[in-house]
Amino acid sequence: MDATPKTEGLRLARLMMVLSGLSPLFVLWAIRGSKILSDRYLWLLCAVMVIVPNLFLWLRILIVKKKQLNNEVVVGKAEDHRDHLLVYLFATLLPFYSIDTASWRDLAALMTAVVFVVFLFWYLNLHYLNILFAIRGYRVFTIAPPQAENPFSGRTSLVLITPRVYLAEGERIIAYRLSNTLFFEAKPCQASSTLELQK
Amino acid sequence: MPGQFDLGTTEVTEFGVGIDAVDGPRYVQVPVDDEVQAVLRQMVAATRSAMKEAGDASRYQPSEKHAAHENLNLPLDDALASTVRAIHEAQNLPNEPKALKEPKNVFCYFARLSAGKGNHLTALRRASSFKGILESQLLSFLDDSLRIVNDEVFRLDEDFDFLIDAAGVHILRPAGFESIGQLRDEIMKAAPTNIKAIQADIAFVDFGSIETYALKHPRAARYLASIRLQQTKNVAKTSLKKHCTNMKLDVKEVKGKLVVAPEAIMDFLAVLDRRLYQVELVKDSPESFFATGRSKVVKP
């Protein structure tokens, strides 16, 4: 008999998505500079922290599209979570940006605080908080499972990143699976795009 | 009546497994890549071909002794299909990529093909050979020599046990359908309802002792489920009584009702299910037969 607690899975992918969400912070640090780290090393560090997670996220989206790793998601109650981006902005970007790293101890404290935030975002499955999605015109919805008596239906809320502005109850959406609870609905291809031509 | 699912319209192919959990069976999705998805669609097509080869479609009857391969169907709203209907209609099944880490808990696997707007097909198969291969030693070629395969390998079958779509349940292997659909439980649960429905049509039979018996004996409950599919309206009391006498069943008439002795209950149910009958080809030498499988002959 199976009695093991279920985990979210895709730990590395979720970690990379959290770090990708923190990309703007590393961009700000690179612009601001540090009193104890030379620009060369700071820019290298920040570039790695921006490029690697975003490359990983881009590759993940590319792989799920190529391998057709998609699911049909049925919308129960949907909530638009654009306001979470504001929380993210005020909870992480602004406080961390304003900390002055005048000594190695300041820098160590700052990095430790960032690690705590990354862990919390990862642990609480907030890996969908990514300003890049908003810049590309996507919205983030939390989807509660449909109210049904079916004993086999999923009971976990899902997060859907979608170009849609509204989700109706009962709507069925075909979306790519980024993690066990995070789904991504790509924008429809333009008629002139390569993907459309391949169909 | 809605038509069968058109494989050509498939937009999404999902794969999953049924797991024996502490609080009952659970169904979870396991992500599979496009190559596995293509194989699953081929398996659905192979199931349909195998069903065609098995003969004309007939309705599934729980009391019938079925062959290994059949072409049976059952309406989706039938009480016997309630478990498989719940599997078919389940939404947002949880994703558990590590569900196959404990293969001994996996009792079936399934594919779900969706064409959007709720139009989908679910195909299920018992996981006997799927996980059975784990217990064998596999060999593969490395250069020009064989070596043991240390990876966990799962084997997909050639077809599914049964398919479910808007048109109903289409059964290739009745044993697989009965196992996954928890038919034994469903039939036992439905026994009181079936008794009531039959009693309404055949009011001159005392079903009290039959009900008590059927609640403890799955075979009797299976007969009741099958009798409901037979024509029970307008059963003539004299014909039934005469048939029971001919078959030497202990059935007495008390206050206008036929009362069946406990030892004759199974045979009496077999009579109602058109399984116990007599043929008199030699004059004054009637022969009695019991049919484990039968199909109604309809002549134009």
Description:
The complex is a heterodimer of chains A (199) and B (300). Chain A is built from 7 helices and 6 strands, in the order αααββαααββββα. Chain A is α+β, with helices and mostly antiparallel strands and 199 residues long. Chain A has one domain. A 6-stranded mixed β-sheet of chain A has the order 1-5-6-4-3-2. With 300 residues, chain B is α+β, with helices and mostly antiparallel strands. Chain B has 9 helices and 14 strands. In chain B, β7 and β8 form a beta hairpin. Chain B is elongated. The mean pLDDT of chain B is 88. The interface between A and B is medium-sized, with 34 and 36 residues.
SSE layout and pairing:
The complex is a heterodimer of chains A (199) and B (300).
Chain A: H1 11-21, H2 23-32, H3 39-66, E1 70-74, E2 78-80, H4 83-98, H5 104-123, H6 131-135, E3 139-143, E4 158-162, E5 172-177, E6 182-184, H7 194-198
Parallel strand pairs in A: 4-6
Antiparallel strand pairs in A: 1-5, 2-3, 3-4, 5-6
Chain B: E1 12-21, E2 24-29, H1 34-53, E3 58-59, E4 72-74, H2 82-89, E5 106-114, E6 120-126, H3 128-132, E7 139-142, E8 145-148, E9 162-165, E10 168-171, H4 174-180, H5 183-201, H6 208-214, H7 218-227, H8 237-246, E11 251-254, E12 257-260, H9 265-272, E13 276-279, E14 287-290
Parallel strand pairs in B: 3-4
Antiparallel strand pairs in B: 1-2, 1-5, 4-10, 5-6, 6-9, 7-8, 9-10, 11-12, 13-14
Helix content of chain A: 40-55%
If strands are numbered along the chain, what order do they take across the biggest sheet of chain B? 2-1-5-6-9-10-4-3
Multimer state: heterodimer
Query: Which strand-content bin applies to the residues of chain B?
Result: 15-25%
| Category from helices, strands and their pairing of chain B | alpha+beta
Distance, first to last CA of chain A: 44 Å
Query: Which stretches of chain B are poorly predicted, pLDDT < 50 over at least 5 residues?
Result: none
Instruction: Report the count of strand segments of chain A.
Output: 6
Q: Helix and strand string of chain B, N-terminal first? A: EEHEEHEEHEEEEHHHHHEEHEE
Which value, in Å, is the CA radius of gyration of chain A?
A: 19 Å
The total of helices of chain A stands at 7
Total count of domains of chain B? 2
Q: Can you write the helix and strand succession of chain A as a string?
A: HHHEEHHHEEEEH
Query: Order of strands across the biggest sheet of chain A?
Result: 1-5-6-4-3-2
